[in-house]
């Protein structure tokens, strides 16, 4: 048989792995939405308020307002992640067992998150510790997951695959959120207190995260590492060696560094809006927990269409332009938020729909766009830098939000202060030379960049 007549089965093999890979977005979105996005912040504040003395709680010798506590916990988890994740990325780049690392971090995070069920009465410290560990593991698993994207897709497929993954995630997270919405809003008819309903909902999210992670763990293939640095010593020593080489060589990839700086700012804004929206809705606008859950459910549903439509737009005009449009919309969102009257449901729902449109799109395209700027063999390391500022682990935005609330005693100026992150991020993104970045990384340029 003529070798040229043999069918190329590589696209079919990639498609099978891509379908398996989507399931991790389905799995981890439950934690991102039900726990980090909706229930953890308000519940931690309520528990801490029970223990407060003079409207303050003490943590590591610091006197903190209970309302600022969730923002500070997110800040702490990101500072720790900034130190830990790059080393973990170097380890991941040197192993052929990425799917095992992915599952291990996911299951460790779910185990830590399960401890939130036991946060009752005034033991808010357990909530701080368990969420801190779970959030760090969430970021570590995301580093490995995003590096796998490069192994299972070509450059021309990235926007489509990444966008479908995000859409799949919003579908999964939204489905569980719908169930938890019912449990929290109908807790009386179910014979539950509201606190028990919230605790059960958070527990269901980490069980969902752990359970559905089994699918990519079983169906993904382990790929041999490519183009790793040759350094001597054991696995930890070699990983530090590769990380050091990568840090020294960052100057050779200025476009990737510029994008990381842009992403640091605009993603901090996005993550802070996501992480603090429930607190804003309940504590500032006066909505019940069930109403906020319902709004988050709306965001999840709209975000599915948003991710897919942004992915299609990127294939026509390029990811960078579409991301910039999304950042303009984010500026309008945080500006409109300060004018919503207390208890005004329709404007709050419209704001949620607007968030849904840009949320999935900007995040999915940021992931696929950055993958084009990453040199081969160092995907996990570069995504570890990326995820030091990623969803659920933003620190500058959360810190600013917490400080503005601390000094103003109002969430309205706190939410509006985030506009600066979208503006700075957008200005930095304008300076990113996509074509040069792809060349520097040694990747193939897709038809539209």
From TrEMBL:
Molecular function as annotated in GO: chloride transmembrane transporter activity
GO cellular component: plasma membrane
The entry's keywords: Membrane, Transmembrane, Transmembrane helix, Transport
Residue ranges annotated for the Major facilitator superfamily (MFS) profile domain, each copy included: 255-449
SUPFAM superfamilies: MFS general substrate transporter (SSF103473)
Membrane topology term: Multi-pass membrane protein
Pfam families listed in its UniProt record: ATG22 (PF11700)
Xref: InterPro entries: Atg22-like, ATG22/LtaA_families, ClC, MFS_dom, MFS_trans_sf
Superkingdom of origin organism: Bacteria
Transport among keywords: yes
Compartment list: Cell membrane
Family annotation (Gene3D superfamilies): MFS general substrate transporter like domains
UniProt KW Nuclease keyword: no
The protein's name in its UniProt record: MFS transporter
Organism for this UniProt entry: Nocardioides marmotae
């Amino acid at each position: 048989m003529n070798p040229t007549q043999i069918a190329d089965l590589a696209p079919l093999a990639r498609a099978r792995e891509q379908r398996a890979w989507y399931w991790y977005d389905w799995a981890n979105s439950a934690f991102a939405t039900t726990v980090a996005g909706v229930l953890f912040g308000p519940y931690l504040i309520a528990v801490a308020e029970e223990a407060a003395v003079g409207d303050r709680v003490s943590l590591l010798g610091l006197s903190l307002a209970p309302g600022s506590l969730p923002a500070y916990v997110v800040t702490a988890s990101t500072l720790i992640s900034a130190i830990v994740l790059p080393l973990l990325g170097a380890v991941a780049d040197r192993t052929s067992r990425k799917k095992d690392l992915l599952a291990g971090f996911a299951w460790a995070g779910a185990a830590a998150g399960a401890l939130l069920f036991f946060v009752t009465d005034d033991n808010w410290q357990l909530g701080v510790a368990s969420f801190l560990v779970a959030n760090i593991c969430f970021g570590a698993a995301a580093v490995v997951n995003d590096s796998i994207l490069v192994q299972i897709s070509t450059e021309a497929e990235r926007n489509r695959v990444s966008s479908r993954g995000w859409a799949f995630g919003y579908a999964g997270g939204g489905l569980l959120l719908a169930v938890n919405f019912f449990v929290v809003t109908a807790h009386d008819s179910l014979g539950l207190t509201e606190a028990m309903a919230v605790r059960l909902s958070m527990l269901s999210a980490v069980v969902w995260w752990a359970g559905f992670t089994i699918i990519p763990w079983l169906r993904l293939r382990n790929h041999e590492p490519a183009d790793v640095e040759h350094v001597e010593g054991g696995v930890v020593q070699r990983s530090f060696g590769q990380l050091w080489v990568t840090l020294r060589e960052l100057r050779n990839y200025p476009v990737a560094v510029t994008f990381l700086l842009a992403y640091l700012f605009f993603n901090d804004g996005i993550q802070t809006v996501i992480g603090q929206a429930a607190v804003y809705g309940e504590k500032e606008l006066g909505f019940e927990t069930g109403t906020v859950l319902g709004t988050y459910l709306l965001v999840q549903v709209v975000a599915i269409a948003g991710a897919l439509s942004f992915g299609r737009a990127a294939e026509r005009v390029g990811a960078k332009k579409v991301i910039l449009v999304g950042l303009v919309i984010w500026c309008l969102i945080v500006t409109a938020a300060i004018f919503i009257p207390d208890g005004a449901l329709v404007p709050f729902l419209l704001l949620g729909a607007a968030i849904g449109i840009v949320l999935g799109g900007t995040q999915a395209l940021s992931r696929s766009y950055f993958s084009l700027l990453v040199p081969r063999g160092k995907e996990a390391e570069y995504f570890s830098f990326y995820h030091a500022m990623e969803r659920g682990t933003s620190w500058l935005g959360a810190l600013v939000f917490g400080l503005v609330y601390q000094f103003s005693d109002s969430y309205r100026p706190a939410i509006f202060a985030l506009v600066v992150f979208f503006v700075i991020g957008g200005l930095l993104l304008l300076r990113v030379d996509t074509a040069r970045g792809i060349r520097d990384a040694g990747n193939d340029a897709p038809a539209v960049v």
